[in-house]
Amino acid sequence: MAVSLKTWPSRLVARSWLLAFVPINAATAGFGVVLPLLILIPLHGSWADVAVAATLFNTAVILSSVVWGHLADRFPTRRIFLVVNYAGYGLLYLGLTHLDSLPALYAIYTLIGLLAPAGASASNLLILEKFSEKERASAFASFQEMSMIGSVVGLLIGYFWTLANDALLTLLYVLAGLAVASAVALWFGIREAHRTLSTRHVAKHAESLASRIRENVGLRIPIPFFPHRPRPGPHALARFRAWAKQELHHELPLIMAAGFLFNLSSNLYNISYTPYLYSAGLAASSIFLVNFSNNFAQTLVFPLTGGLSARFGPDRLVRASTYFRSLGYLATVGFTIAVLSRGGALDANLIVYGILGVAIAVYTTASSLMLFRGVEGRDAGSLLGVNSALGGVAAVAGAGLSGILSVVGSFRLVFLVAGGALLVSVPIWAAASVAYRRRRLAAEVPVIAPAPAPADRPTDPALATKTQ
């Protein structure tokens, strides 16, 4: 069964209250660039310090995702969860304006990580509860559009702000105001839905899946997806072995392995990219502009990816986008070798990071479709929970590896490792496509039951006579 995914709504805003998600995405996108620059410039930190902060943040996100998912199921008050999430961002951003040491920054950034998943489940459940089945595709498409538009706006604000006065700490006041604006708009702009759903319902919608695993350019990690909470405890290893044996001939393990490599390489690259740009001599405003090119490319291309997937197939697109993304990583390796002027480095990175934005937009839709068709008719919540856990491990591992390489290696080595991991994932995606076709072919071949074996003739003559 083919799975379609609409990425362009019949109208840009399915409901006016979806506009409330624009300011918060502007705030998080701007903050994603401000955070490493705070470490590098006012606090005089290093690339290793950026990696440590990212590791703490990613770990906090993974640990708190399970808790927030449980709370979202137990207390169906979506508006409160979103307001707590966004208003909390605003307060913590303000707290960063008064920091004077790296340990204080680590502590506040970890708190942001603990708070980050609070609105992830709530926003998806809010859309599922407020829109009918017929409207949900357009609603999630609108939700994604608001996210991308907000990201572009936030980076433009950061660019013009730092271009005018190069004041990162005062920019945090603007970002805090944007986060609080979303909290206020959601509090007064919507009401709780009459019906309530649980996180397991989110796993049944491809559009929701795409909106959850799309790379959040503000936080630099894929938002974890925990529709079904992992069950640690007795016999956990035995359950995992049984699951692995059952999935041995399915495409899902291959998809998860390829996705793990993609997330690992993306986190490794993204965490190191801003320190690299700073080391290349780019000003804060130029670094905002480079990030803008990536987000703007995503905003332009993402609405087309649903049609492209329908025309060329998600299998082909996921391999092509992964391959081109790896080429972008390797091109960055070339930038570390070539002697580029400040203007040349800006132009080169604008182009390459824009291409990487196109690749992530295509990859997100294509990989979502491949993952969603693999979990159809199965325990989607449990399987997506496993995939989410792998994404979390990849986020923490990417941040940790970035920290290690910052001590023993170089930016060139980091980008080589990231590009190599992506190239390794390309044949794994191809193997997943082959496994899917074989599974579908086996399902379509009719199974002819063997004819029953003829009954044995009795050997006793008396019985033979009686039978006749």
The main β sheet shows up as:
2 strands, antiparallel
The CATH homologous superfamily: MFS general substrate transporter like domains
* Approximate helicity band: over 70%
Adjacency order of strands in the biggest sheet: 1-2
- Output the CATH topology: Growth Hormone, Chain: A
Radius of gyration: 25 Å
SSE succession: HHHHHHHHHEEHHHHHHHH
Number of domains: 1
The CATH architecture is: Up-down Bundle
Category from helices, strands and their pairing: mainly alpha
Q: What's the end-to-end separation, in Å?
A: 54 Å
Mean pLDDT: 83
**DSSP strand tally:** 2
Query: What low-confidence regions span 5 or more consecutive residues with pLDDT below 50?
Result: 216-220, 456-468
* Beta-strand percentage range: under 5%
Number of helices: 17
Sum up the overall morphology in one term.
Answer: globular
Q: What is the C-level CATH assignment?
A: Mainly Alpha
What tags apply to this protein structure?
mainly alpha; 1% strand; globular; 17 helices; Growth Hormone, Chain: A; 468 residues
Structure explained in plain terms:
By secondary structure, this protein is mainly alpha-helical. It has one domain: MFS general substrate transporter like domains (Growth Hormone, Chain: A). The chain has 17 helices and two strands. The chain has helices spanning 21-40, 47-74, 78-96, 102-115, 118-130, 136-165, 168-189, 199-202, 206-213, 236-246, 252-279, 284-312, 314-337, 342-375, 380-408, 411-444, 461-467; strands at residues 215-216, 221-222. It has a two-stranded antiparallel ribbon. Strand 1 and strand 2 (221-222) form a beta hairpin. Helix 3 (78-96) packs antiparallel against helix 4. The longest helix has 34 residues, at 342-375. Residues 216-220 and 456-468 have low confidence and may be disordered.
